[in-house]
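In practice, a research group might receive sequence data for several interacting partners and want a quick structural hypothesis before committing to experiments. The following worked case mirrors that situation: the sequences arrive first, and a predicted assembly follows.
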Amino acid sequence: MARNTVNTLLKLKQEGKKISQVTCYDYSTARLVDAAGIDTILVGDSLGMVMQGYENTLPVTMEEMIIYGRSVVRGAQNAFVVIDMPFMSYQCSVEQAVMNAGRLIKETGANAVKLEGGVAVAPQIKAIVDSGIPVCGHIGMTPQSCNLMSGFKVQGKSEANAERIMQDAFAVQEAGAFMMVIECVPPKLSALISKKMHLITIGIGAGAGCDGQVLVNQDMTQMNGDFLPKFCKHFGNVGDALIAAYKAYDEEVKAGTFPDEQHSFPKSECPEEFLKVLDERY
Ligand code: KIV
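A structural hypothesis for the assembly, expressed as tokens:
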């Protein structure tokens, strides 16, 4: 299988085929996600919450995105890798946005960058695309604006808010983005947006009418205990499987049954006579 590209992903939309995306932040998980045949990986700044334990994504830095992003790219052979631009790495100016998008692509090997916002960041999206970097937009509930939005709330319920989201969608598309995340928007509104767009819409908490779906890896694999946002589903219970493995290891170490002969190197032992010498000498 060859790595997905902007064109192969756009073709999926044109053929009416759904696109899968999952977040990922490290090499070994990227290999697993890739082996499962997921179309695209998002190195989300949600890593601030699920990998670093912050209460939101705001503290995440460019340097951190680069470290996590590099590991993911090394593990993903086929999935198209999108990497998030962290808070305040693109909002200040078009020049800052292009410089930081360039750094993310150059220093991680990711295939595209993602930034949050619509009309307000259209000049940044256009300039990044003009510099040769594919862009994924992100509209609706934009976690980097959680303070302005008074938390992580569904967007687009009122007429004014729904119209603003529609305008954001068109601004992102007209600026040249090939893909756009729609987060926490009522299903009929996001389906309408998806129908009107030629770019790929990826929903999270936005119903089934989007061209694809994204979920946070730790949430969908139950690595966060019972934490389950309304829009998420547990597709497996990796958390409990890991706890069971750690418990079994703990028990065997404490019982002295691990490591046994099979997991040691008895055949490479140094000569018995010399062990006696060492025993006497020390
Ligand atoms: O950072 C992230 O993981 C995201 C997804 C929730 C879309 O932006």
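Before designing any experiment, note the following. The pocket of 3-methyl-2-oxobutanoic acid is lined by residues 23, 42, 44-46, 84, 138, 181, 183, 204, 214, 216 (CB under 6 Å). The chain has eleven helices and eight strands.
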